[in-house]
Q: What sequence folds into this?
């Protein structure tokens, strides 16, 4: 008898991660680059992928500072152009496929660092827009100066199963991946832009850190992580691609080199999620303890609030 | 029961170690990306002084762009050490880059004839700024870009001529301490006599960096690294460094923040450039 869960989603699908080097601030050129990447995927020996993932800030480059106003566009506008580009570059061979794309978003006068999930084809459909919650604003990063925070991590349904998107630092926070897992996601797409630093041993240390973070989170939650990294240098800061698929056993399935553009191909089999979660039912155990843990967190957060309001009174 | 004792390694002692293979790969990619991909410029111009910094940059540029696309410009002044000239030629020969020697004595002396009482420091600054004029002009001549050679130690100490040797628009070495440049240079194959000789700006006869600075690079870099990482001077001293050395380094860093920035511009509006109007360098 087939498992009822299996009916929820296709058990297997083909994934492509596009390790992309954008032209700074040039949206037209970058849509052109997306078209070229899709053409390269279509020309490959493998069948065209079911889901194609592009990195964070693909349409503009990452460090745009106040230029974010010039390069931001609405998710609907991004979808329209994506679909046009796909139609032009793939022509009649095209069948519907899904895409994840990181871009700076303009919505109701506010700017966000966002990623969309859409189905492209004769009837394009925007399935989800994730707005980055954790905006790094330290050291080389200054995101919160230029864009607003997203507020929610949503799990959304796709033809290829329940998914979530986290953008770069979002996925560094174990609580964020936990929220995605508890929400039912079996795969998390991570468009990212990680500047390389720490040149002591074989590879930039941020590459190692990302691999470790994702492997640990994947093993804990028994889920896939599909990480697509931006590449190229922006004002002396070089991004480390190292685009990767991590499996639900915490196993690194494939990883691109950290320098230069690349197309990463991999197969996702959601049966692995079932097997992994049976072998290490940490997510189930968490669900069992969740209400008590949330109660403790609530208490702590009320104490923090109380502390804050007392401090405010003192200042007055 | 017999216990095996396992002791934490002293990580801080090795903090300045780099993986030179990785750094070479990274900097070659950086040079190609900044010059060719972004600016569509195929040629680089390097002022080859005979010192280790410019030697390392010449090697990196030759690997990134091909030696034929790199012009080494040797710019002696009449008081420059003959050893600098010999070492500059060694770099040119070893890398196979194109080479030109432009003696800056006439240009420097032409100006200084009107300033006969200029101090040694002023004369050194005139030389450094004259060399920049030459480098930018040679770059314009061949459609290339001057490549900087300043390292992190001298940048942190302000041990350079403002708008002189810091002015090239691209610098592969600026985030490497001097001791890290030595590691990289050894890996790149820079001749031993260049890597191991005392560093000198060669602006004044017989000067060395370490005498000018009053501290060795080996010691200064370890203190600088701790300061940049965020340790307090009390903690750095507690880690075993001499209070006088720590104070010297802090003083030099603290007195030269201005040298690591462009001109201070009076702000009058809510659209002041680089204050409100913010666009990255590569936008």
A:
């Amino acid at each position: 008898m087939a498992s009822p869960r299996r009916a929820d989603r296709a058990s297997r699908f083909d994934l492509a991660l596009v390790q992309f080097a954008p032209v700074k601030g040039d949206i037209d050129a970058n849509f052109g680059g997306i078209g070229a990447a899709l053409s390269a995927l279509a020309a490959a020996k493998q069948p065209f992928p079911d889901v194609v993932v592009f990195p964070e800030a693909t349409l503009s480059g990452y460090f745009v500072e106040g230029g974010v106003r010039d390069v931001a566009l609405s998710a609907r506008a991004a979808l329209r152009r994506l679909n046009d580009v796909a139609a032009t570059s793939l022509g009649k061979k095209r069948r519907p496929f899904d895409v994840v794309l990181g871009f700076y978003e303009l919505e109701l006068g506010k700017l966000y660092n966002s990623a969309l999930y859409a189905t492209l084809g004769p009837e394009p459909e925007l399935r989800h827009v994730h707005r980055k919650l954790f905006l790094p604003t330290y050291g080389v990063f200054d995101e919160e100066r230029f864009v607003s925070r997203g507020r929610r991590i949503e799990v959304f349904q796709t033809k290829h199963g329940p998914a979530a998107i986290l953008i770069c630092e979002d996925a560094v926070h174990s609580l964020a991946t936990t929220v995605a897992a508890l929400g039912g996601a079996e795969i998390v797409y991570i468009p990212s832009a990680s500047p390389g630093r720490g040149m002591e041993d074989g590879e930039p240390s941020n590459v190692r850190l990302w691999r470790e973070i994702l492997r640990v989170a994947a093993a804990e939650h028994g889920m896939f992580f599909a990480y697509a990294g931006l590449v190229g240098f922006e004002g002396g800061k070089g991004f480390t691609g190292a685009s990767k698929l991590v499996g639900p056993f915490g196993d690194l399935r494939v990883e691109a080199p950290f320098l230069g553009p690349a197309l990463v191909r991999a197969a996702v089999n959601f049966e692995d999620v079932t097997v992994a979660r049976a072998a290490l039912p940490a997510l189930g155990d968490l669900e069992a303890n969740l209400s008590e843990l949330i109660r403790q967190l609530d208490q702590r957060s009320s104490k923090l609030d109380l502390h804050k309001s007392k401090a405010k009174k003192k200042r007055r | 029961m017999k216990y095996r004792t396992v002791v934490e390694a002293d990580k801080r002692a090795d903090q300045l170690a780099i993986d030179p293979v990785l750094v070479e790969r990274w900097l070659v990619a950086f040079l190609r990306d900044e010059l060719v991909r972004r600016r569509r410029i195929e040629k680089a111009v390097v002022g080859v002084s005979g010192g280790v910094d410019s030697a390392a940059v010449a090697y990196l540029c030759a690997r990134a762009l091909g030696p034929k696309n790199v012009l080494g410009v040797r710019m002696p002044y009449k008081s420059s050490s003959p050893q600098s000239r010999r070492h500059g030629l060694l770099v040119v020969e070893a890398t196979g880059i194109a080479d030109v020697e432009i003696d800056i004595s006439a240009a420097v002396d032409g100006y200084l004839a009107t300033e006969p009482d200029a101090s040694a420091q002023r004369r050194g600054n005139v030389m450094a700024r004259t060399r920049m004029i030459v480098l930018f002009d040679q770059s314009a001549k061949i459609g290339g870009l001057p490549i900087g050679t300043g390292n992190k130690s001298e940048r942190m100490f302000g041990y350079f001529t403002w708008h002189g040797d810091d002015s090239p628009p691209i610098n592969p070495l600026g985030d490497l301490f001097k001791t890290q440049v030595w590691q990289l240079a050894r890996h790149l194959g820079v001749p031993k006599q260049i890597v191991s000789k005392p560093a000198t700006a060669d602006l004044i006869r017989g000067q060395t960096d370490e005498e000018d600075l009053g501290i060795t690079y080996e010691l200064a870099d370890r203190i600088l690294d701790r300061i940049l990482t965020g340790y307090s001077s009390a903690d750095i001293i507690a880690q075993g460094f001499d209070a006088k050395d720590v104070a010297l380094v802090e003083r030099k860093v603290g007195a030269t923040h201005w040298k690591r920035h462009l001109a201070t511009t009076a702000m009058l509006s809510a659209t002041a450039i680089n204050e409100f109007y913010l666009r990255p360098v590569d936008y």
